[in-house]
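Hey all, sorry for the wall of text incoming. These are the two entities for the joint prediction.
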Amino acid sequence: GNSVTQMEGPVTLSEEAFLTINCTYTATGYPSLFWYVQYPGEGLQLLLKATKADDKGSNKGFEATYRKETTSFHLEKGSVQVSDSAVYFCALNTGNQFYFGTGTSLTVIP
Amino acid sequence: DTAVSQTPKYLVTQMGNDKSIKCEQNLGHDTMYWYKQDSKKFLKIMFSYNNKELIINETVPNRFSPKSPDKAHLNLHINSLELGDSAVYFCASSRGTRGENSPLHFGNGTRLTVT
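and here's what came out:
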């Protein structure tokens, strides 16, 4: 079946630290992969996406590379800011349905 | 302009009541969804409609009934509310059913509290 596994949180980092949130997936076929971000009190917003192997999605300093050989789509940012504090969701779409990870809460402290 | 809007934002009600949540999207998308997010932020798909046709109907109590009067609207009606229904409900939309290049667009959620 299709599923997404992402690292459990919460994650607490100091401002300007390096961020990695791990995400691995299981899927039939060739899924598209996404990272969504949810700020407090808001809905999920698309952060970045990748539609095929070796694609790199990037947005707002965040990056993730679609690695088919390791079935991974890890989220990285070189220098986090307090405003990056949110819950991050990894997701895949096989064409019929979206599958979400359990979310990773990130808190960035000044 | 809000792309996916849902009302109300907050809903507090007593057990046994019936309530509805409305959702509208102005993105011209063909597919709309209802998700439930629990207190641990876990997202669960409930329903999906494509052009007013039900395409995903996950294991959800039949007290929950979606209705799509047109492809821009998807409402959720809940009968005989229970304490366990307390959660945040998100409406979302996407272009078509094949989502490889069509991400989900979410509303801001409806926080339902059943007392």
